[in-house]
Amino acid sequence: MKNSRIFGSALAASLGLACVAATAAPIKIAVIESLSGPQAATGLIYRNAARYGIEKINAAGGWNGEPLQLVEYDNQGGPTGAADKLKAAIADGVQMVIQGASSAIAGQISDDVRKHNMRNPGK
What is the DSSP letter of 90? Predict the structure, then answer.
């Protein structure tokens, strides 16, 4: 009787851990870069560096044990495209945004993120 209780408790604990592992969604990180057009060479290099970094973090167990997922958006080389892609990233549930190839695009994204955070505190 005692062994069956221990087995039942161990089974319940195992199933609970399996459910937690199965439902743990990755942390989504958007890279909003020029992936096409005349500035694509720089954007593709930055995107590849981001992929490499995220692969290394995931290989080491993730960020605080949670996996990271890179989601790529092509801003088509301009601030307007970046603003549109940021809206798409937010709709896709992205939690972080990275960008590094253009200060004009970085300025647009920074301003849009600030406005989003003011309108949606805590999200």
Answer: H
Fold of 25-119: Rossmann fold (3.40.50)
Q: Which has the closest alpha carbon to 11: 77, 3, 122, 119? A: 3
Q: Are 75 and 38 in contact (CB under 8 A)?
A: no
Residue type, 30: A
Residue 74's DSSP bridge partners are 33
pTM for the whole thing? 0.76
The domain limits of the chain are: 25-119
Q: How many CA atoms lie within 13 A of 79 on its CB side?
A: 10
pLDDT digits 0-9 by tens, 56-100: 999 999 999 999 999 999 998 888 889 999 999 999 999 999 998
